[in-house]
Specification:
The protein is an alpha+beta fold. The chain has 2 helices and 6 strands. Pfam families: Acetyltransf_1.
């Protein structure tokens, strides 16, 4: 069974084992299997703010990792999902979108950021920001 777990904060997945080993495995996953390969060329700016970081695991096996960050110098779209890496066998729209949605909810992002840029470039409404005329989708859609 797949689980999405926090990678930072109290009771997080990273601190539940060998911290260095788990952090290294997250970094390797991002560099070896990035959802957005161009992100592997980016440096971490001094003013970048990390709002949420999560992992997808299957038992003890790390399947995916991603962060929700705010880069103030990106004035047009400062909030975004960044650093996502997912093993190829698990790289489906469902896994990616579920991880993104979980990060967005967990981040409790400042309402001043009305949208978060997803890995596919789509702008996802910040659920903590009130945007007039925008209906919030409640729960996943199913057929």
């Amino acid at each position: 069974m797949l689980e999405i777990l926090h990678a930072i904060g109290p009771g997080n997945w990273v601190s539940g084992g060998d911290v260095v080993e788990r952090r290294e495995s997250m970094q390797e996953l991002f560099f070896d299997h990035p959802v957005c390969p161009e992100e592997t060329e980016e440096d971490w700016p001094d003013d970048r703010q990390l709002y949420a970081e999560m992992v997808v695991v299957e038992g003890e096996r790390l399947i995916g990792t991603a962060m929700l960050v705010v880069d103030p110098e990106r004035e047009d779209r400062p909030a975004r999902i960044w650093g996502m890496g997912v093993l190829p066998a698990f790289r489906t729209d469902f896994i990616i979108q579920t991880l993104e949605e979980t990060l967005i909810r967990a981040a409790h992002l400042d309402p001043a950021y009305p949208f978060i840029e997803a890995t596919d470039g789509a702008l996802v409404p910040n659920p903590y920001s009130e945007i007039e005329g925008l209906r919030e989708r409640r729960g996943p859609l199913a057929a």
